[in-house]
């Protein structure tokens, strides 16, 4: 059984990824346009408390570390559930307002 890709599949996948990125960027710009500068500043400050390495993503390791600093001892399954719930909430917010 051959796992080779058909010609154009890589290009189609890359085009789809670019389309999704552009769509996401457009949604974020729409949200940003609806927030005051004070609100943006507050959200950015809170996000940066968790984004310890400054890469724009809050991963499980960062969530675990911040949770421990706040006095919570979460096991791996609790961290996974927390990350999943946060992603779900963000999706619902984006869907509701966009």
Question: Can you tell me about this structure?
Answer:
By secondary structure, this protein is mainly α. The protein has a single domain (9-97), classed as Recoverin, domain 1 (Orthogonal Bundle), CATH 1.10.238.10. 73% of the residues lie in helices and 0% in strands. The protein is built from four helices and no strands. It has helices spanning 9-34, 37-50, 60-69, 76-97. The chain is extended, with a radius of gyration of 18 Å. The model has no long low-confidence stretch (mean pLDDT 83).
Please compute the radius of gyration using only Cα atoms. 18 Å
The CATH architecture designation is: Orthogonal Bundle
Q: Sheet bearing the most strands, described?
A: none
Number of H- or I-type helical stretches: 4
Summed over residues and divided by their number, the pLDDT gives a mean of 83
Number of distinct beta strands: 0
Structural class: mainly alpha
CATH topology: Recoverin, domain 1
Distance between the termini: 44 Å
Shape: extended
CATH H level: which superfamily? EF-hand
Low confidence ranges: none
Strand content: under 5%
Number of domains as seen in the coordinates: 1
Under CATH at level 1, the class stands as Mainly Alpha
Q: What's the SSE pattern? A: HHHH
Q: Give the proportion of residues in helices.
A: over 70%
